[in-house]
Amino acid sequence: METEQQIGNSKVEEINKNAIIMKRGRKLRNYILQWLQLFIGAAIASMGLELFLIPNQVIDGGVVGLSIMGHFMVDGVPFGVFLVVLNLPFLYIGYKHIGKNFAISTVIAVIMLSLCSEYAATFPKVTNDPFLAAIFGGIVDGIGVGIIMRAGGSLDGTEIVAIIADKHSPFSVGEVVMFINLFILSGAGLLFGWDKAMYSLVAYFVIAKMIDVVTKGFDETYAVMIVTKDPIEVTDELNRQLGRGVTILHGQGGYTKLPKEILYCVVNRLEVTKVKEIVLSMDENAFVTINSVYDIVGGRFKTKGH
Fold first, then answer.
1. Angle at 268 between CA 266 and CA 272, to 5 degrees
2. Taking the CB of residue 203, how many other CB atoms lie within 10 A of it?
3. SS3 string of 125-193?
4. Res. 305: pLDDT tops 70
5. pLDDT tens digits for 243-253?
């Protein structure tokens, strides 16, 4: 006959096994929801591009803009092919410097946008007016890109370069992105004419605004506060994987009156998903709050104007 200790141990093992199964189930559900968001975002973005912008020779910034120009320069090669090929080196850089989850999400988003664009290209364009195309195409494309960004992905490899350049130069992410897009839009002027370049500039700002709306003020930098039972371990892991400084604040539970360690750090928007992934993988009961930061003075973290 089993002793009480053996029965107790078997119950503990069963509880642990059930907890592992539930954790895996939640993880799978989160992945499915993330991929669904990436697909929906890619489908919407492809409609903005193929029904409005591309037929009217109006481009977006970044790799998407370069892919549109490549599509017109090399007849017969679809836009999606250029999007995948031009993003490959940036995806490798993103994997090395930002993380595997971001790189995988971006790969899925880029491939889905390429496939959806092939299908959307079979439909006739909605308008022949380039100004209307810039406005409404920018709105539709911006909504799609915003959804992709909420899911932790990206379509613009140049932004990855900007994030890395921000760490090694006096220029902010926004300044580097604007500098890169200035050359891309100038290229559009030489290829399509300066009227189309100006329409493209309108589309670029509309897309940027819609991304902000969809992501509820998605800014370049975020302040993250973390309450966890393993503050030292989480701090070490954030330092190791992100290279960001973490401040440990000493607090106290309002109800329990027990001392608590609160972690505070500032990250860019591409690192937000990685922070949540790191913290919840180490302590699934951790409490994490994320707030937009509009300006930073001092310290090692550079932002707009600094």
1. 85
2. 31
3. CCCCCHHHHHHHHHHHHHHHHHHHHHCCCCCCHHHHHHHHHHHHCCCCHHHHHHHHHHHHHHHHHHHHC
4. no
5. 888 989 988 88
